[in-house]
Amino acid sequence: MPSTPSKDLETFDNPQPERDYTIRIRMPEFTCLCPKTGQPDFAELDLEYVPNERCVELKALKMYIWSFRDEGAFHEAVTNRILDDLVAATAPRFMRLTADFNVRGGVYTKVIAEHRDPAWQPPLPVQLP
């Protein structure tokens, strides 16, 4: 197989570090295993972040997300772990990860975890007439 899962999160230099801007990445095929039953759990991950000096490289992110396919994890734990790993790799000004899990036993779960650099102040919203 030409590609394999990996926990390595590669980054690249932010091309506009002086500007606040938002990167949004949708990952509709996240899979891990239920730690109680071993059955697969499926989720859509939505990542939003305001980069500082580094951005996450998309192929590396894809391989990283793929690496959870055979791991057992509670929804809350895996969402926070992914956020922590991404924050460690990129040190963003702000990052939010939303994990919207498919139904399991008649219950849907959505976990939202955030990181904010204490030195960063979000820009004020612009209200156009």
Find the count of extended strands (DSSP E, 2+ residues): 6
Using the CA coordinates, give the radius of gyration.
16 Å
In percent, how much strand structure appears in the residues? 35-45%
Structural class of the secondary structure composition? alpha+beta
Flag low-confidence runs.
none
Helix content range: 10-25%
Mean pLDDT: 95
Task: Please tally the helical runs, counting DSSP H or I stretches of 4 or more residues.
Answer: 2
Terminal-residue CA separation: 55 Å
**Main pleated sheet:** 4 strands, antiparallel
The strands making up the biggest β-sheet line up spatially as 2-3-5-6
Q: What's a quick, concise take on this entry?
A:
By secondary structure, the protein is an alpha+beta fold. Helix content is about 20%, strand content about 40%.
What does this structure look like?
It is a single chain. The chain is of the alpha+beta class and 129 residues long. Helices cover 19% and strands 38% of the residues. The chain has two helices and six strands. It has helices at 58-66, 75-90, and strands spanning 11-13, 23-33, 40-50, 54-56, 94-104, 107-116. The strands form two sheets. Strands 2-3-5-6 form a four-stranded antiparallel β-sheet, covered by helices on one side. It has a two-stranded antiparallel ribbon with strand order 1-4. The longest helix is centred in the middle third of the chain and has 16 residues, at 75-90. The chain is globular, with a radius of gyration of 16 Å. The model has no long low-confidence stretch (mean pLDDT 95).
